């Protein structure tokens, strides 16, 4: 557990220090150079943090994402999964309507933006989001599945990797929202790392019927790390235990159905998830 908490604290430190650097230097090129010196394990977190800061500045000065688009299409390309999540942080923080902002960008990663909104609200609006179970007024109904995935990710951090607390919080949500929450949990556990085999097995047991969601979440984390060239032994171990193959195999498995990053919208993402779930269920039964 101590290893997990240390990694969570490292992630939070990287995020905050990146924000501070940009606030004091206000130079995107200098910021990119700074981030390239961050240890590879959590370098993508720095790019996510920078994405949020750049997007906020763009949105506050007129709404056009001029600098953000240059950033995501240039130095941040390898970290696109996290960069689009960072845009979600900005939308949630500023409480802006979701659609008018995402309509300014290509729609291949809209679902990642919604995930970022969920993570922000789950972390910084816990009373409304986790305790009162309020749904965000700024987000369209179609994006709520991805929003809940982000909320699920946030629980691993806010509960300090205590699976007992996480499970209790997830069970407080309506049943139809819990699958996405567990999928987000799977992403967070696999991405953060630090868990030994015994604790990963405990997390799996607590997920119960949503174990498939954990497995799929670990595959998404592996896919994100492979695209950014930041793979870790922890993410690979999680894939081996939950997905029953290496991180590379989990990535290939999820890619074989057709990555929605190439098809584009929320409905396509949900369909992709369903296809993966069906394949996972078949492989587990087999």
What this model shows, in words?
This protein has 286 residues and is mainly alpha-helical. The protein has one domain. 73% of the residues lie in helices and 0% in strands. The chain has 16 helices and no strands. Helix 3 (43-60) packs antiparallel against helix 4 and helix 5 crosses helix 7 (110-124). It is globular. The protein starts with a helix and ends with a helix. The model is unreliable at 260-264 (pLDDT under 50).
Any descriptors?
16 helices, 0% strand, single chain, mainly alpha, 286 residues, globular
Could you outline the blueprint of secondary structure elements for this entry?
Blueprint: H1 2-25, H2 28-35, H3 43-60, H4 66-73, H5 80-94, H6 98-102, H7 110-124, H8 126-131, H9 144-158, H10 163-171, H11 175-192, H12 197-207, H13 211-228, H14 233-243, H15 247-255, H16 266-285
Helix pairs in contact: 1-2, 1-3, 2-3, 3-4, 3-5, 5-7, 7-9, 9-11, 11-13, 11-14, 12-14, 13-14, 13-15, 13-16
């Amino acid at each position: 557990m101590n290893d997990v908490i240390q990694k969570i604290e490292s992630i939070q430190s990287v995020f905050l220090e990146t924000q501070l650097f940009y606030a004091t230097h206000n130079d995107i090129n200098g910021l990119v150079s700074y981030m390239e010196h961050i240890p590879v394990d959590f370098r993508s977190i720095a790019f996510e943090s920078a994405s949020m800061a750049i997007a906020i500045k763009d949105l506050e000065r007129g709404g056009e994402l001029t600098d953000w688009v240059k950033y995501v299409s240039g130095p941040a390309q390898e970290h696109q999964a996290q960069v689009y999540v960072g845009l979600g942080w900005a939308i949630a923080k500023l409480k802006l309507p979701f659609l008018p902002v995402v309509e300014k960008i290509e729609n291949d990663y809209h679902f990642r933006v919604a995930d970022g909104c969920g993570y922000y609200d789950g972390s910084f609006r816990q009373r409304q989001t986790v305790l009162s179970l309020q749904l965000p007024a700024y987000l369209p109904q179609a994006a709520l599945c991805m929003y809940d995935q982000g909320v699920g990710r946030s629980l691993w951090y806010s509960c300090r990797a205590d699976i007992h607390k996480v499970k209790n919080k997830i069970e407080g949500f309506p049943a139809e929202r819990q699958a996405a929450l567990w999928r987000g949990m799977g992403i967070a556990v696999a991405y953060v790392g630090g868990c030994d085999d015994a604790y990963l097995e405990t997390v799996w047991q607590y997920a119960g019927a949503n174990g498939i969601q954990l497995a799929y979440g670990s595959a998404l984390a592996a896919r994100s790390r492979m695209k950014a060239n930041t793979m870790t032994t922890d993410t690979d171990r999680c894939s081996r235990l939950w997905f029953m193959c290496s991180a590379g195999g989990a990535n290939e498995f999820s890619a074989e159905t057709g990555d929605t990053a190439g098809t584009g919208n929320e409905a396509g993402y949900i369909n992709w998830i369903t296809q993966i779930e069906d394949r996972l269920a078949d492989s587990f039964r087999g």
